[in-house]
């Protein structure tokens, strides 16, 4: 492929530049992947600290620690930071590290844009976080920023929020374009579409979703900006606009966004289960088709977030069935993972533990999602802690466990060192316990009627809230152990072999550990 | 960058502004959708139509609800809360409105119809909600709405609720939009 041959401007033996400029000017996919991963780790800890404030306030009924206004700012920023700063950049970082190595490409197709798309992110989050110190405080309208809460009634800092969302969107779009161009044009000869590793497939689909919906999000915040500053009335009923329109536009972005945060996880988990089961993945092509159908369906289910706004019956029924339909391809995937393990020679290293927990706990989250899809039931569950439990089950032991699994699985390739298996397992069990103790009781208090987004609650919810807070502290503090394990692995440890894992297959395991600064400058031979 | 990459890149770069525009296109699409289905109780002005008028319409009741949007100090209420009307005939209802403040204010009423599948059959010939109301301090007015309920109204609907919410839009009408307060008070 000519792309590979043209790409000889950098000498194969030439290593990274020294000092800070290495990171500022880098166009190397591995460096940029590392930057993304560290950035998302930092955001994960900041967003996590906010979650600790939330759970500390909810530890007991009554107002204990923070003012209600500040509590609202915490839930808003926690959501925004975890989604746009934690999960999404982590997946982009993994894509940067892994996609070129998995398809036998020397780098991403657009290395300079790659640098730009990372380096605008810290500015976006600096702007967002700085709003905490502004007059009127940070955004306080929830991560879904429904108008008119986010327009007519918003604090003045909402304008900063809008610009930071614009920057995050630009970053995601550039990252996604880069991934698509790389995958479509830079595969080594012999890597056909249906031979691509599933992580690559999952990212190809995710990138298309990003390109389709991030501009719609940009449109939504632009309309807010115009309503706030230029006197338009997109969402203002007095001027002929409609607040419900905001929800339609937002969720047209928002639902595909949910799958943007889970599809790469599907890819990761497929690789890990395959490796540690020492078997070939069961049903490769059905996995690809399942991801494609999930992605397509994600565009026609958005109104299930809005069952209570007064949709006509026909629409409620349509969105209910369309939503339930998603359980079919998702079920196919879960079946395939289980079938891959069936009669495999399974070992339970840390990545496998996280992947297994993913399968079980993500399925619990999927099941509560099905319950929420049932229109008459949703009227009861809507805006209660049941919803909070549902989306945290798919995001924390779903998306985040998959990211942790990926880190444990590929870190020997990145650093050349094995992580400490005993500490890794300890981290897993603490996280696993913490997540379940935190979020499982939220199903109960949600079904009992506790509404989301309030700093205080009725006395009958006190016991389970305390349990949930204890779990949250356990989960939160065990992430410091994760940080320690990662740092320890970066500093040193048992040297990793090229293949690292006995059952590992794929091009990234054919290069040395740590992966050289430049890999596949000449395309690999594929049989 | 090779040729294939350039082609893919061009396509994707075109897709981005198109999707951005699509986000904005959702605004008129939403209105069209609401107009076609009559959802959201959006009722648009209709022309006088002889063909809708019939003699043997059935009798239904039309209820009126008036709501003041927050911070709107005017008195605003229907002259009669319920009217017995016949389908296929034009009727006029009135609302009483009074500016209770000591400054000139401009208001806009926004209508909504329940049940929503009745909205398409409600034909408004004239309505105060099609224009803005400007009242001097202490001024009163009686605002008319002239409407007809088409005989094609589903027969299970025996009661239609017409609701108006009145908004203070004085600031929006002001030439000085610049000092329009949007922040928290």
Q: How many structural domains in the coordinates of chain B?
A: 2
Shape descriptor of chain A reads: globular
Strand order of the largest sheet of chain B: 3-1-9-5-7
Low-confidence stretches of chain A: 1-12
The average pLDDT of chain A is 94
Structural class of chain A: mainly alpha
CATH architecture of chain A: Up-down Bundle
CATH architecture of the largest domain in chain B: Sandwich
Quote the distance from N terminus to C terminus of chain B.
54 Å
Order of helices and strands of chain B: HEEEEEEEEEH
CATH superfamily of chain A: Cytochrome c oxidase-like, subunit I domain
Mean pLDDT of chain B: 83
Q: Please tell me how large the radius of gyration of chain A is.
A: 23 Å
Question: Which bin fits the share of residues in helices of chain A?
Answer: 55-70%
Number of DSSP strands of chain A? 0
The quaternary organization reads as: heterodimer
Reported for the largest beta sheet of chain B, the result is: 5 strands, mixed
CATH fold-level topology of chain A? Cytochrome C Oxidase, Chain A
Fold-level CATH name of the largest domain in chain B: Ctag/Cox11 (Pfam 04442)
Count of helical segments of chain B? 2
CATH superfamily of the largest domain in chain B: Ctag/Cox11
In summary, what is this structure?
The complex is a heterodimer of chains A (527) and B (185). Chain A is mostly helical and 527 residues long. Chain A contains 18 helices and no strands.
SSE arrangement:
The complex is a heterodimer of chains A (527) and B (185).
Chain A: H1 2-6, H2 20-25, H3 29-57, H4 68-103, H5 111-119, H6 121-130, H7 158-185, H8 198-229, H9 243-260, H10 263-277, H11 284-297, H12 313-325, H13 327-341, H14 350-373, H15 375-381, H16 385-415, H17 421-447, H18 462-491
Helix pairs in contact in A: 3-4, 3-5, 3-18, 4-7, 4-16, 5-7, 6-7, 7-8, 8-9, 8-10, 8-11, 10-13, 10-14, 10-16, 11-13, 14-16, 14-17, 16-17, 17-18
Chain B: H1 3-37, E1 59-68, E2 75-78, E3 82-86, E4 90-98, E5 105-114, E6 122-127, E7 133-135, E8 140-149, E9 159-168, H2 170-173
Parallel strand pairs in B: 1-9
Antiparallel strand pairs in B: 1-3, 2-4, 4-8, 5-7, 5-9, 6-8
């Amino acid at each position: 492929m000519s792309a590979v041959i043209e790409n000889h401007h950098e000498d194969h033996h030439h290593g990274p530049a020294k000092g800070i400029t290495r990171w500022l000017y880098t166009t190397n996919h591995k460096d940029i992947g590392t930057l993304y991963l560290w950035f998302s780790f930092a955001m994960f800890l900041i967003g996590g600290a906010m979650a600790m404030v939330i759970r500390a306030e909810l530890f007991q009924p009554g107002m204990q620690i923070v003012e209600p206004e500040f509590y609202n700012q915490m839930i808003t920023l926690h959501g925004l930071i975890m989604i746009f700063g934690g999960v999404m950049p982590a997946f982009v970082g993994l894509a940067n590290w892994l996609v070129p190595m998995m398809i036998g490409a020397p780098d991403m197709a657009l290395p300079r844009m790659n640098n730009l798309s990372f380096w605008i992110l810290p500015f976006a989050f600096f702007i967002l976080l700085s709003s905490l110190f502004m007059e009127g405080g940070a955004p306080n309208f929830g991560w879904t920023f429904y108008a008119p809460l986010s327009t007519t009634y918003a604090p003045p800092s909402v304008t900063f929020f809008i610009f930071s969302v614009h920057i995050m969107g630009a970053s995601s779009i550039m990252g996604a374009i880069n991934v698509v161009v790389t995958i479509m044009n830079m595969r080594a000869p012999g890597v056909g579409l249906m031979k691509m590793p599933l992580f690559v497939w999952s990212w190809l689909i995710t990138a298309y979703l990003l390109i389709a919906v991030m501009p719609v999000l940009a449109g939504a915040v632009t309309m807010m900006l115009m309503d706030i500053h230029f006197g338009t009335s997109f969402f203002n009923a007095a001027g002929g606009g409609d607040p419900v329109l905001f929800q339609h536009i937002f969720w047209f972005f928002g639902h595909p966004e949910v799958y943007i945060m889970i599809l790469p996880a599907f890819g990761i988990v497929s690789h890990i289960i395959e490796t540690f089961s020492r078997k070939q993945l069961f049903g490769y092509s059905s996995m690809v088709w399942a991801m494609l159908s999930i992605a397509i369906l994600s565009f026609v289910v958005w109104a299930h977030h809005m069952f209570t706004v007064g949709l006509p019956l026909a629409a409620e029924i349509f969105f209910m069935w369309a939503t339930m339909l998603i359980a079919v391809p998702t079920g196919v995937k879960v079946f395939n993972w289980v079938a891959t393990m069936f009669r495999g020679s399974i070992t339970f290293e840390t990545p496998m533990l996280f992947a297994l927990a993913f399968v079980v706990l993500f399925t619990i989250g999927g099941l509560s999602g099905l319950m929420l899809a049932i229109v008459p039931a949703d009227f009861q569950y809507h805006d209660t802690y049941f919803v909070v439990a549902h989306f945290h089950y798919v995001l924390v032991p779903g998306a985040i466990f998959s990211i942790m699994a990926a880190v444990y699985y590929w870190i020997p390739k990145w650093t050349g060192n094995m992580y400490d298996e005993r500490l890794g397992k300890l981290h897993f069990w603490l996280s696993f316990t913490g997540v379940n103790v935190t979020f499982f009781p939220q199903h109960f208090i949600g079904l009992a009627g506790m509404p989301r987004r309030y700093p205080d609650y009725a006395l009958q919810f006190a016991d389970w809230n305390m349990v949930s807070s204890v779990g949250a502290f356990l989960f939160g503090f065990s992430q410091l152990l994760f940080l320690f394990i990662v740092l320890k692995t970066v500093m040193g440890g048992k040297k990793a072999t090229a293949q690292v894992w006995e059952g590992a297959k794929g091009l990234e395991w054919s290069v040395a550990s740590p992966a050289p600064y430049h890999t596949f400058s000449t395309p690999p031979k594929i049989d | 960058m090779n040729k294939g990459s350039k082609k893919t890149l061009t396509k994707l770069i075109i897709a981005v502004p198109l999707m951005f525009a699509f986000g904005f296109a959702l605004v008129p699409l939403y209105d069209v959708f609401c107009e076609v289905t009559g959802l959201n109780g959006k009722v648009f002005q209709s022309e006088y139509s002889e063909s809708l008028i019939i003699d043997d319409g059935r009798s239904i009741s039309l209820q009126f609800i008036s709501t003041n949007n927050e911070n709107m100090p005017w008195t605003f209420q229907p002259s009669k809360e319920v009217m017995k009307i016949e389908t296929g005939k034009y009727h006029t209802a009135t609302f009483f409105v009074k500016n209770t403040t000591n400054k000139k204010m401009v208001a806009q009423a926004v209508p909504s119809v329940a049940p929503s599948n009745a909205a398409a059959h409600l034909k408004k010939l004239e309505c105060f909600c099609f224009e803005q109301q400007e009242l001097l301090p202490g001024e009163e007015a009686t605002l008319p709405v002239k409407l007809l309920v088409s005989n094609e109204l589903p027969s299970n609907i025996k009661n239609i609720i017409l609701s108006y919410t009145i908004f203070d839009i004085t600031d929006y009408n002001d030439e000085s939009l610049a000092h329009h307060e949007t922040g928290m008070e």
